Amino acid sequence: MKTELKWIISLLVIALSLSGMSVHAAEIEGVFFEDSVALDGTTLKIRGAGLFRFKLIIKAYVGALYMLEGTPSERVLTDTPKRLEIEYFHAIKGEDFGSASNKIMSRNVDADVFKRLKPRLDKLNALYRDVQPGDRYSLTYVPGKGTELALNGNPLGVVEGDEFASALYAMWLGEKPMNNSFRQQLLGEP
């Protein structure tokens, strides 16, 4: 009986000590992503994480996608809450994000939609700041509020609209993403 009690107490001590620890769901290239993020009273769970290689050679950044648990892949671009976190391995000028965003968004939506969304994309592009290795951007979409851009946890601004969010996230998760392998990793698909 004493041995059983010692085992139970030991397990409780271990469980209690672990409960205060941060849970990392993914580690890619030495970068950790949490298991979940809190968002307006709900919890988004990590869906997948991966490494983005520029021109298939250069390790550019790692990213993780968070969504409501059980959201099917085909609903990723719908009016549902989500967060994309990206941590960079190289310095990038803030203004360089705009030209890449324009090019990639325009190939994921038709010309009329891109023209209609361009003022919102310009607003987002104006929010970008220079990044250094280790900096992390997050794009968080909340239905009815819009997409918030934050750098290292500091909010920079919000761009409204579910149509804009869908076009923006399509750059990584749409039919013509920046990189198909990275898309599959974010979606947790083999």
Which features characterize this protein?
9 strands, 190 residues, alpha+beta, 7-stranded antiparallel beta sheet, Chalcone isomerase, 5 helices
Structural overview:
It is a single chain. With about 190 residues, the chain is α+β, with helices and mostly antiparallel strands. It has a single domain (about 25-185), classed as Chalcone isomerase (3-Layer(bba) Sandwich). Helix content is about 35%, strand content about 35%. The protein has 5 helices and 9 strands, in the order αββββββααβββαα. It has helices spanning about 1-20, 95-110, 110-125, 160-175, 180-185, and strands spanning about 25-30, 30-35, 35-40, 40-55, 60-65, 80-90, 135-140, 145-150, 155-160. Helix 2 (about 95-110) runs antiparallel to helix 3 and helix 3 packs across helix 4 (about 160-175). The protein starts with a helix and ends with a helix. The model is unreliable at about 5-25 (pLDDT under 50).
Layout of helices and strands:
Elements: H1 2-19, E1 24-28, E2 31-34, E3 36-39, E4 42-54, E5 58-67, E6 82-88, H2 94-108, H3 111-127, E7 136-142, E8 146-151, E9 154-159, H4 162-173, H5 180-187
Antiparallel strand pairs: 1-2, 3-4, 4-5, 5-6, 6-7, 7-8, 8-9
Helix pairs in contact: 2-3, 2-4, 3-4
Give the rounded overall mean pLDDT. 87
**Gyration radius from CA atoms, angstroms:** 19 Å
- Largest beta sheet: what is the strand line-up? 3-4-5-6-7-8-9
Q: What is the 3D shape?
A: globular
Q: Distance between termini? A: 48 Å
Number of domains: 1
Question: Based on DSSP secondary structure assignment, what is the total number of beta strands?
Answer: 9
Classification by helices and strands: alpha+beta
Q: Which range does the strand content fall in?
A: 25-35%
Order of H and E elements: HEEEEEEHHEEEHH
CATH architecture: 3-Layer(bba) Sandwich
Main beta sheet strand tally, sense and closure? 7 strands, antiparallel
Q: What is the top-level CATH class? A: Alpha Beta
Count of helical regions:
5
Q: Unreliable stretches, pLDDT < 50, 5 or more residues?
A: 5-23
- What level of helicity do the residues show? 25-40%
CATH topology: Chalcone isomerase
